[in-house]
Amino acid sequence: MNVSVFQKMKDMMPSMSRSQIRIAQFIIENPSKVLNMNILELARSCESSPSTVVEFSKKLGFSGYKSFQIALAQEIALFETLKPDSDRLRRICRDFLGFVFSELKQSVELISDEVLTRASDIILKSNVVEIFAYGFDSIAGKDLFLKLKEFGFQVNFFSNPFLQSISASHLGNRGCAVAISSSHSSTDLLDAISFSKKSGASVIAIASPSSKIAEVCDILLPAYVRTEILSEGGFLTKYLQIVIVDLLILKMFEIDKDRLYEKYKHFETILSQKRRGDKGVF
């Protein structure tokens, strides 16, 4: 895992000499300025020497000051790309619902009826369904879990990576895993998918078409949004994932209406008893 240059400096300050601490503090306070400073200029600004700057760079894991400067420039550039465009955000906010509906319509059109039918059929024929998701993606994961429970499916939802892999390894050839991810790659989720497939289970993914998850799943329900509101992508993606979950449930109902209708009537009976107030079950 790549560690932030700034985080490295902060983490290693306790083991630095006083001269090195002055260099670190100067860089943290003036990162953009340091990009245009040669080693002698930085040393003078920190009341240090060029050799101390080199030692400082090597202490952080770089071959020298130049390679440290390159890493610093890359990190500053990354920070700049993460800054939201306030003018663009204002334009979106003026008609947020219109923007969301327009984006979702284009995204949903990428999902073919054939693929949706295949995914629905697999879930309908499974004796157990395991749902795997993290973070923002857990919203859609929990939604699918609750809807399948309403229709009487044996279903589990896990956001813990250890439980995901353990449960996935026991699925078997009559089981089905549904992986939901807005990330282009998630090692933990890929592990759960791998264990699911090794057990003989089918894997359905609600994920980006360009992700590693899309490459390894059996059926992909593409969750792709053309426009990001913020760089982390949580706004539109979570709406799209929930729409895909609803499309999946509706298609299942279309395929096996009689069975699911009976299951839903049973669910309503239980629900009415739970809404009984103080009357009790009997």
From TrEMBL:
Boundaries of every HTH rpiR-type domain copy: 3-79
Protein name: Transcriptional regulator, RpiR family
One Gene Ontology biological process: carbohydrate derivative metabolic process
Pfam families, sorted: HTH_6, SIS
GO molecular function annotation: carbohydrate derivative binding; DNA binding; DNA-binding transcription factor activity
Organism of origin: Pseudothermotoga lettingae (strain ATCC BAA-301 / DSM 14385 / NBRC 107922 / TMO)
InterPro entries (alphabetical): Homeodomain-like_sf, HTH_RpiR, RpiR-like, RpiR-like_SIS, SIS_dom, SIS_dom_sf, WH-like_DNA-bd_sf
Keywords: DNA-binding, Transcription, Transcription regulation
Residue stretches making up the SIS domain: 119-258
